[in-house]
Amino acid sequence: MAELDEPVYSIGAAAKILDVPAATLRAWEERYGVITPTRSEGSQRLYSRNQIEKLKYIKSRLDAGVSAADAHRLLAQQLAGGSVPAAIPDRSAEGRPLILLADRDQYAADLAEYFLRTEGYDVSIATDAAQARLLFAERSP
After folding, report:
1. Alpha-carbon distance 91 to 86, whole Å?
2. Measured between alpha carbons, how far is 90 from 83 in angstroms, rounded to an integer?
3. In this predicted model, what pLDDT tens digit does every residue of 42-101 receive, in sequence order?
4. Cα(first)–Cα(last) distance of the chain, in Å?
5. What is 1-84's CATH number, 1.10.8.60, 3.40.50.920, 1.10.10.10, 1.10.1660.10?
6. CA 9 to CA 16: how far, in whole Å?
């Protein structure tokens, strides 16, 4: 797990991975402060693999039509709840049934998600009503 936290990706590499301008990553860092890269000795931004995954989550939310502020707020809520979200791929072509699971208990939601995914369902989890409404608007089941 330590290698996932090691800062190795420059801002240019992160921008290419995410297909966003480096200026956007700088703006997100300054504006929202949810993901703050480490600085090298030369003061260059360096991102870890975990931070790239979190940025992929933000990008997937933006691609789904969510505002940058809401995407960062959702990420912050999930991180505060102890879960690390993954980018949500577009699975509309796969034809898997989508289930929106709303539960305030993150552990219960994670367990239910596991069983639903093993049965072939696509699952989105919301831990509060606002998040459920946002996810419903993004990915109507």
Report:
1. 14
2. 21
3. 999 999 989 999 999 999 899 888 999 999 999 999 888 887 676 665 544 356 788 899
4. 34
5. 1.10.1660.10
6. 10
